[in-house]
């Protein structure tokens, strides 16, 4: 369980970037990532942290270990409540800057990532997801994508689940019975088909949100529908930013089946 916990690194000043970079490199080293990838992890963490200080008036870096088919990787989520971006693709170009810097941060982060995605709303802030995998770890595509944020969760707290389903550009919300839900860390979407939608035809996209009660039951994804086109780790980052409890202890996992919008995603570097 300890290697599944998310390292939360507040970023308001350059010295905090250095501390976050050390945490990321130490975790990547413990996971056994190749030596050349450790340099990329340091560069990635530094660029995302600098972006928070220069452009977003601060934020947080959430760092966690990844596991796929027994092979490890590292994820960095950058979360802020800054000015956001009016043109995401322009901000990803090298040389573009709104703060008088060289304008290389997000472009570099995207280029060195195996997986990359972001969600930004002008005036509300940005969530950036970047992943670096051990070589060969992406050789087999998973049946679903997932994102998790675990910060000292209480294993005795019962988990709740809700399912968001899109069919024909319409989203519906359902609450499956607890017995149908996978465990928080299980690599499964549903143990069996959701009976509430089994006769409605194939879903275009489906999210399963598992959480330990911190998320208001009345939360409606329609307040931010565009995030449902992003990677589920980005949705997890948004839920953390908007709803994380003040005591800091929470458990959240977001799983998704269906194609996510790869408009801003980077090519995977390690084809096998």
Task: Give the integer mean of the pLDDT values.
Answer: 82
Secondary structure class reads alpha+beta
> What's the CATH class of the largest domain, please?
Alpha Beta
Strand segment count: 10
List the helices and strands and how they pair.
Layout: E1 7-11, H1 14-31, H2 35-55, E2 59-68, E3 71-80, H3 88-91, H4 105-112, E4 115-121, E5 125-133, E6 145-151, E7 160-167, E8 170-174, E9 205-211, H5 232-243, E10 250-257
Question: Could you give a quick summary of the protein structure above?
Answer:
The chain has 272 residues and is an alpha+beta fold. It has helices at residues 14-31, 35-55, 88-91, 105-112, 232-243, and strands at residues 7-11, 59-68, 71-80, 115-121, 125-133, 145-151, 160-167, 170-174, 205-211, 250-257.
List keywords for this structure.
272 residues, Heat Shock Protein 90, five-stranded antiparallel beta sheet, 5 helices, disordered C terminus
Describe this structure in words.
The structure is a single chain. With 272 residues, the chain is of the alpha+beta class. The protein has two domains: 2-133, Histidine kinase-like ATPase, C-terminal domain (Heat Shock Protein 90, 2-Layer Sandwich), CATH 3.30.565; 145-257, no CATH class. It has helices at 14-31, 35-55, 88-91, 105-112, 232-243, and strands spanning 7-11, 59-68, 71-80, 115-121, 125-133, 145-151, 160-167, 170-174, 205-211, 250-257. The strands form two sheets. A five-stranded antiparallel beta sheet has the order 1-2-3-5-4, with helices on both faces. A five-stranded antiparallel beta sheet has the order 6-10-9-7-8, with helices on one face. The radius of gyration is 18 Å and the shape is globular. The two termini are 30 Å apart.
């Amino acid at each position: 369980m300890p290697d599944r916990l998310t390292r939360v690194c507040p970023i308001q000043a350059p010295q905090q970037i250095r501390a976050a970079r050390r945490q990321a490199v130490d975790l990547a080293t413990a996971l056994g990532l190749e030596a050349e990838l450790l340099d990329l992890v340091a560069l990635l963490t530094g660029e995302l942290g600098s972006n928070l200080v220069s452009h977003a008036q601060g934020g947080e870096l959430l760092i966690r270990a990844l596991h796929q088919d027994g092979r490890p990787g590292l994820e960095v989520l950058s979360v802020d409540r800054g000015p956001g971006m009016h043109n995401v693709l322009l901000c990803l170009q090298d040389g573009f800057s709104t703060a008088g810097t060289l304008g290389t941060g997000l472009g570099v982060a995207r280029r060195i990532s195996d997986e990359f995605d972001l969600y930004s709303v002008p005036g509300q802030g940005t969530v950036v997801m970047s992943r670096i995998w051990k070589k060969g770890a992406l050789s087999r595509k998973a049946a679903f994508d997932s994102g998790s944020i675990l910060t000292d969760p209480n294993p005795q707290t019962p988990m709740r689940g809700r399912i968001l389903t899109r069919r024909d550009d319409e989203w519906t919300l359902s609450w499956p019975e607890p017995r149908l839900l996978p465990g928080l860390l299980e690599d499964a979407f549903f143990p069996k088909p959701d009976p509430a939608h089994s006769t409605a035809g194939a879903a275009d996209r489906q999210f399963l949100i598992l959480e330990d009660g911190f998320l208001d039951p009345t939360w409606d994804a329609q307040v931010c529908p565009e995030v449902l086109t992003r990677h589920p780790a980005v949705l997890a980052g948004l839920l953390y930013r908007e709803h994380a409890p003040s005591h800091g202890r929470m458990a959240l996992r977001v799983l998704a089946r269906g194609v996510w919008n790869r408009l801003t995603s980077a090519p995977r570097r390690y084809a096998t």
